[in-house]
Design a protein that fits this description.
single chain, alpha+beta, Heat Shock Protein 90, 2 domains, five-stranded mixed β-sheet, two-stranded antiparallel ribbon, 43% helix
């Protein structure tokens, strides 16, 4: 019931758009055009992405994902994720910086899943950082752990929202719709949490308050502390 309840408002908007336009075309009230077909395709794609995100989240939370765990170098996955996100950052005019400590020890993780987590966190940071702002992605070491980090100079989070940001469909700004340009599906952070925990790590968010930006950090097990592979 929780998933269905949360999903209903996320699907209602694209479904309403699809129904309204298809009924209008069928009744002759709306003339079909390239713009109309493009709009319908966009809404259908948005629904498909949401359903796919929910499927991946359910698999991760149920421990049903296949993980290819092996020692990986933190710098390599950070650079891979940053390269994949460079164009969206350039398009919006947000500065993307990379900060990785030298000679970090390897961690045991699924490299593709770590890249996915970093991209989810960077996408979230990009949505909440205005033009001419900055997002920094990197990795360092603290307390004997490798810590991955995505920090932004964006909207920030009030203290009461920090414990909830990884809940599916949670919105700190209730007035902001996911229908807006760049809006997310509402499950990206939940997927990130499930993936990190499935790989034996932990993830959390920090912010000094509204307007002060936000930082998302996660850890992964060091290569010497866990088995090399898991099926």
């Amino acid at each position: 019931m929780e998933v269905i309840y949360g999903l209903s408002p996320e699907l209602r908007s694209p479904l309403s758009t699809l129904r309204g336009y298809t009924e209008g075309v069928a009744e002759g009230v709306i003339q079909p055009s390239e713009e109309i077909w493009a709009l319908l395709q966009t809404e259908a794609d948005r629904m498909a992405r949401l359903v796919d995100d929910l499927r991946r989240l359910s698999q991760a939370e149920a421990g049903q994902l296949d993980l290819d765990l092996a020692p990986i170098l933190p710098a390599e996955v950070v650079l891979r994720a940053a390269e994949q996100m460079r164009l969206p950052f350039e398009h919006k005019g947000v500065d993307l910086k990379i900060s990785v400590y030298d000679n970090l020890p390897p961690v045991v993780a699924d490299a593709d899943r770590v890249v996915q987590v970093l991209i989810n966190l960077m996408s979230n940071a990009l949505r909440h950082t205005p033009r001419a702002g900055r997002v920094t992605v990197g990795a360092g070491i603290a307390g004997g752990e490798v810590v991955f980090e995505v920090a932004d100079t964006g909207e920030g989070l009030a203290p009461e929202h920090l414990p909830h940001v990884f809940e599916r469909f949670y919105r700190a700004d209730k007035s902001r719709s996911r229908d807006e340009a760049g809006g997310g599906s509402g499950v990206g952070l939940a997927i990130s949490k499930a993936l990190v925990e499935a790989m034996g790590g932990r993830i959390w968010a920090e912010s000094s308050g509204i307007g002060e930006g936000a930082t998302f950090r996660f850890t992964l097990p060091l290569a010497r502390s866990v088995p090399r592979t898991v099926s």
